[in-house]
Amino acid sequence: MNKPHSTKPSKRTGEGGKTNWRRVDAMTNDEIESAAAADPDAQPTDADFWRTATVVMPRQKVPVSLRLDTEIVAWFKSQGKGYQSRMNAVLRSFMNAHKDQA
Question: Please, which residues have CB within 8 angstroms of residue 36's CB and are 6 or more apart in sequence?
């Protein structure tokens, strides 16, 4: 018989997220593992994966004060969390496309 994975009531508020925590809390461990296995973006890793894995440290960032048009910042923010990293990626792409022209 499957037992729920938690016997304590959830204290998650779920504010701002799309996860139905009541549904998740009602699932058994087997159901959670089955759902995770069916998700192509959440495949488990095995010992072989970790044997050949390499750690890639993020590049150091430099804080900078920058004046941008309001609508540019608003658009990037409207795309969700990580807007500053996306701005950095756009600037990096521009830089890489124009490196040989400098």
Answer: 42, 44
* Single pTM value for the model: 0.48
In a domain, 25, yes or no: yes
Q: Which two tokens stand for residue 34?
A: 């089955």
- The C-alpha angle with vertex 15 and arms to 6 and 24, in degrees rounded to 5, equals 25
Specify if 80 maps to a domain.
yes
Structure-block tokens of residue 68:
């941008």
The verdict on residue 65 lying in a domain is no
Kindly give the confidence (pLDDT) of every residue in the chain, 102 residues in length, as a single tens digit, with 9 standing for 90 and above. Answer: 455 555 455 455 555 678 889 998 999 999 988 888 899 888 778 898 889 999 888 889 999 999 999 999 999 999 999 999 999 999 999 999 999 886
